[in-house]
């Protein structure tokens, strides 16, 4: 995959160990830093991860629109970044954030509130 | 994608709204149900989701080995399923579990403990 990764400003040491899907992206989980709520899952390429690490605002890459989006730029529902970690395989990002308002475009606090398949 | 989805025992109403990646999978976030810790991210196809919903044990599909794996079958570090939800786009699964022991194959409690890129 390495040869097909677009140039980005991401720290080369991080870029070297990042394991991307065939589309060059990794899933990024956004979690509310204090309550632990899992808010949403987005996708990042190297540049989106770089921007998330350096701007203080969570930035994703839209698979459908093929463009970057800064969470909250349209809705005001900003995600202020508190911490960023890779998993043990370096193929998933966990971003702890302070979410302003609703994380979900439906107005729900999280994207997982409204389609519960099982609850014991 | 619908025509290429392998037959599974998943509830057809759920299968009809599930939005899979090109490889037929959806990311599945495992979260400790009481502490809120994000433990790991795995992948599920329809059958893995069905088994997770019906067996009480978290079941994933390994992208590298192209086979199902029941978390804890080898390690003993079982994930007992407490709830399962889809997100608003039906392309991500959140499974709240009771994790026995370490979630990570490294022995760490979660897969996100050891590669912190930013911590404010």
From TrEMBL, chains A, B:
UniProt-recorded name of the protein: Phosphoribosyl-AMP cyclohydrolase
Enzyme class name: hydrolase
Cofactor: Mg(2+); Zn(2+)
Annotated function: Catalyzes the hydrolysis of the adenine ring of phosphoribosyl-AMP.
Keyword Methyltransferase: no
Binding residues for Zn(2+): 88, 104, 111
Stored HAMAP family: HisI
Gene: hisI
GO function terms (MF aspect): magnesium ion binding; phosphoribosyl-AMP cyclohydrolase activity; phosphoribosyl-ATP diphosphatase activity; zinc ion binding
Cross-referenced NCBIfam families: PRK00051.1
Keyword Zinc assigned: yes
A Pfam family that the UniProt record links to this protein: PRA-CH
Family: In the C-terminal section; belongs to the PRA-PH family. In the N-terminal section; belongs to the PRA-CH family.
């Amino acid at each position: 995959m390495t040869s097909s990764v677009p140039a980005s400003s991401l720290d080369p040491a991080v870029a070297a160990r990042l394991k991307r899907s065939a589309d060059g992206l990794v899933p990024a989980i956004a979690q509310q830093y204090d309550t632990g709520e899992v808010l949403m899952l987005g996708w990042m390429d190297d540049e989106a991860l770089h921007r998330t690490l350096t701007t203080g605002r969570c930035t994703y890459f839209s698979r459908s629109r093929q463009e970057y989006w800064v969470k909250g730029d349209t809705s005001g529902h900003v995600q202020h970044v508190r911490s960023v970690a890779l998993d043990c395989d370096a193929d998933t990002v966990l971003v702890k954030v302070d979410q302003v308002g609703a994380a979900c475009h439906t107005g729900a606090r999280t994207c997982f509130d409204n389609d519960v398949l099982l609850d014991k």
